[in-house]
């Protein structure tokens, strides 16, 4: 490390935040390749189900007040790969169609800092039906600076005071990646915690991600009495920290709070915040807290201070919902109602109780960690039950196909039908990521093993069409069998000949082609 490259900054103004912005703007959708930036924990169907249920409850509550004409805007901050938005909209539309009740219209707006992401969403095949229905729009939105939202599809701008319905804000793993202040409290005093940043000697040779991982940070405390002056907007909360905590480093979400203030001004009727992150809402969590840990994953993330967000919004009349009877393990999900008479929103509150507090994304993820270690010994009914619980998630199916295949000889007819039905449900809500996985191949081969030849041919054909250059003789042979079982002997022979072009010594293909030729 070069001494002349070491500099000291206020924590929220350090170059780490510019590097963070650069990383996402440079990488775009590729940031989520190989789970470089984690996405499953924050974007799986279970998380989306919890969000959709709370949004649906809110729409019911608005309908109950007679607010049915004006649309409700749902704005996701930092929508990233887009998987959460897709699953949430998919679940929300299912609830709407199943209930068959009158609700206010709604539109979901995916936003991100990276223009590459906004452009990629607009062309993603899975999102096109929502765009055509008028349910989905997109915007590049800088959460640290912007005061307006420019919609890409509608070609309109949401300005302060434009929204007549409350705004629904989805902040999913958002507060942990935007700038924060860092303070230190000790012996009744508050200190600004600056950081000294030491860059690697070969800085110009490194990618943004490598720079973030290799630079060294040191903390330097300096007295900051200005935090306790009456003119500081959060002085009462700082006073609480000084009096209740000691020897504690506290991440303070000024940028997050001011972002919520700017979004609040877009609506005349307040907002509903639905959020999830790693970060606690309990004051005691921050007592004796060490300097913040940087979690590196391509970019970096910190811990979200939900206690500060909860306290500030409650002081302004909001109602916050976080788990009260148990502590979170990996994902803390919260819902804050910054609305007039928030207790009237019974359906919203009940949805939080049922789909977060009683059993929600955090509990599901804890179970999944166990399942990941034991899936090789699970029975078919256990696998099917967990697959249903997770909303027929493709990732779980992919990791379970070998085990399911091994259990097929003992499976009953109803279990086979449940697997078949689950595959179709899974496929209807599959969101293709930048780094593609051939889910159609896995589904088709499993259906072939179960002798559901019509379905197997449908999925195996999709696999071939998606990547014609990667055709596998075994897949072509399976397609030949499917065609023969359907009574299409000509198609079967064509598939066999194609398989033999790729692998001339394929014994099964040779034998079947010989038998079919002899029948003519």
Automatic annotation (TrEMBL):
Ranges for the TPR repeats = 473-506
Gene3D superfamilies found in the cross-reference section: 3.40.50.12710, Tetratricopeptide repeat domain (1.25.40.10)
Keyword field contains Calcium = no
Q: Which UniProt keywords apply?
A: TPR repeat
SMART domains assigned: TPR
Q: Which InterPro entries match?
A: NDUFAF7_sf (IPR038375), SAM-dependent_MTases_sf (IPR029063), TPR-like_helical_dom_sf (IPR011990), TPR_rpt (IPR019734)
Q: What is this protein called?
A: Tetratricopeptide repeat protein
What organism does this protein naturally occur in?
Answer: Paenibacillus lignilyticus
